[in-house]
Amino acid sequence: MKRVLSLVLLIICSVSVFSQNLPVAYDSIVVSSRKYANGNTYQKDLLLYANMLAKTHPYYDSEQHCRQLEKRVRTLYNDFNNIESIDDFRIRLQKEISSLNDAHTSIYLGITPILLYPVILEIDTDKTAVILSADENISHIIGKRVNKINGLKVNAVLQKASQIISHDNDIFLYNILQQYFQIKKFWDICTPGCETLDLTFSDGTTISLEPASRDKINHPHRIQNDSGFMDQQDEFFCHKIFKDESICYLQFNRFADRITHPHMKQLPRFDNYIEQLMKEISEKAVKTLIVDLQYNGGGNCTLGDVLLSWLSPIDSLKGYSVAVRMSDLLLKTQPDFKNVKLKNGTSYHLGKMYNLWDFDWEKLYFPNSKENTSQLIDTTKHRFNNNLNNIFKGNVVFIEGRGSYSSSGLLLTTARDNGIGTIIGEISGNKPSTYGDILQCILPNTNTQCLISCRYFIRPNEKLKEEEVLIPDILLNLNDKDGTWKWITNFYGK
Known about the structure:
Radius of gyration: 24 Å
Number of helices: 16
Structural class: alpha+beta
Helix content: 25-40%
Low-confidence stretches: 1-19, 371-380
Strand content: 15-25%
């Protein structure tokens, strides 16, 4: 049932946060092995981590992949005998798993923005670096092309960064580096021993930048746009209607609301919000709806489905299929799986992959209910639009940006595969079919925090599941907000 699946989406799109009570990686067979007994602190946690990865991550559902991992661990076990610090151990572990091409699976390296450099560098798709933003006192370097960073050519920096940062694809890596390049801790790992950020430009000039705390750095100088409403707003979702153009601009910044975050009572419900918005759009005869997702890094994907129910008949909407890898870590993190059975009445087996919809969630959550469960769920969870007469019949335009990721990427891909609207903007790093749903744990000997995906999300059009990126129908430079809005009004304004 559609509503039962909506309830399950609350499970599959949830992402845990680090806490002091993370599950501890443990396996009795590993701990009782001779290698574990004879190993140092780092070798022991290597064995525990590899075992957990093999039993949890969807990639290792393959016996061939597991054998490859076992072979690699035998080599690493000897290498890890020479590791001298926990930081080095974590970096080495991160370098190994970066090859999975899974941005959700990573080792916590502590790359926190305590000390920052006063510039923002953007990586173009041709693998060159450009100064996108800088403090006002060095604003003369904005727009300059960078040849070397801390003595390394940009290509060499990208190669090092690809090992330090988990990523789905190169686009994701280049996008996220815009944030990491500011952080001193990142450069401590990428180019150890460099206390300043030394940039060499294509015109032969150089500059050496000192790090500082965020409160000591002036706001970066940026090009000012007249279309200020397209700058990122503080609200999770907000809108503005342009009567003369017959356009509604909806900025959707996070898939979160009072239902997904019940402790935040000040948040509105998204289903209430979008229902009122659609009523306003209808009353004002708005012809075009712009859904701006350029700042949306994800959240609970149910909100995306709520929005789609107002743009297309929900019963005919083809959604993602989701494969889940059953594991001890999953049961510790999401205990509902301990009690659910498959619809055929059989139990699952740990280590195996299952289609999420093959589980009997209705029986688990409503074992004694004789009521219409769809109505029950609608009153306790997000409401969907089921009235065909309320579906928006005008133009729908989605703005995809570099920051559109995770659940916002699922929304964009679902819209594309169902023929809903037009996508404009930039290529994001979101892989249309991707690993996800983060489980977290801690390695006991080094206190290392780990994130591991347990699911594989397959896009509605499975023929395209191998595509690396979702390319907009119209490519636009979203740094130029005025130019973007001008394009929208020229094409869609009445």
